[in-house]
Amino acid sequence: MLIPSNLVNEKFDDRYFDVVNALDEAQQIYFKNNNLIERITMGIESKTTFVIGETGFGAGRLVISLMEFMEKSGLKNISIEYNSVELYPLSPERMLNILDGFRDRVGEGIDTLVEAYRSIDITVAGWHSMKIQQSFGTLELNLWIGEALEMVEALEKSCDVWFLDGHSPKKNPSIWRPELLMEIGKKTKTGGTCSTFTVAGAVKSALMEAGFTLKKFPGCGGKKQVLQGVKC
Ligand SMILES: C[S@@+](CC[C@H](N)C(=O)[O-])C[C@H]1O[C@@H](n2cnc3c(N)ncnc32)[C@H](O)[C@@H]1O
Questions:
Q1: I need a labelling partner for 51 at 20 to 30 A (CA). Which of 15, 34, 83, 162 fits?
Q2: In 10 A of CB 131, how many CB atoms?
């Protein structure tokens, strides 16, 4: 299959995501395998904010996948805090160009995300905060421009779930290095979870060292198996 050139991150010679079923793949690996709806529902009565961490913001595909997923759930008055990191931020124009391929499913959510992203100065390192209002509630997007380890160290709270969506470990081992995954383990609530598309041995070992009990789930989008971990 021909890969659209705007989907390739030149820094790592790797795609931001697979071309086929990128939204469904995100929803299976990162949301369904982590029982997101059930867990978010549990926090509604207590008005608890559900805290997400992501390594690799890229084009924001996971964010718009989450918007679609939450909207479809029919849940209301949800508060989600989404902490992500990007070392090489895309221009808003390129982000829009990439995400436009999902317009039939996500519609205006794409413009909302790109407008929020346009409002921050991506040349400035550190945290940038965006409040995005959606039909399901509020999505507070905190994006750290810079290195993933610095972001995790700067994070002042532990996450309910981590979406580990760096490039493949072969193309970018830095985003899977044990010291980073160890720090992610420390910034995960007990009983919290993580998910990733890779089942590479080095990633599994580092996640287990970081305190996660791992489980393999059937893969999707060309991957035989994917990984999910529960922090003990
Ligand atoms: C596979 S892409 C992420 C795709 C994204 N989650 C999406 O759905 O659009 C991985 C991203 O991680 C970024 N990245 C790679 N190494 C990094 C590091 N050490 N710290 C922060 N970001 C990094 C890359 O620039 C790239 O944008």
A1: 15
A2: 9
At 52-111, the pLDDT tens digits run: 999 999 999 999 999 999 999 999 999 999 999 999 999 999 999 999 999 999 999 999
Q: Specify whether the CB–CB gap between 57 and 84 falls below 8 A.
A: yes
Q: Domain coordinates of the chain in residue numbers?
A: 5-136+147-231
**Stated pTM of the model:** 0.97
**pLDDT tens digits, 98-153:** 999 999 999 999 999 999 999 999 999 999 999 999 999 999 999 999 999 999 99
State the fold for domain 5-136+147-231: Rossmann fold (3.40.50)
Closest CA to 131 of 139, 123, 119: 139
Residues with a CB atom less than 6 Å from ligand 1 = 9, 11, 16-17, 56-62, 85-88, 147-148, 165-167, 172, 174-175
Strand partners, 216: 227
Tell the residue nearest (CA) to atom 7 of ligand 1.
61
What's the chain's length in residues? 232
Residue 209: enclosing H or E segment and its boundaries?
Answer: helix 201-209
- Whether the per-residue pLDDT at 2 is higher than 70: the answer is no
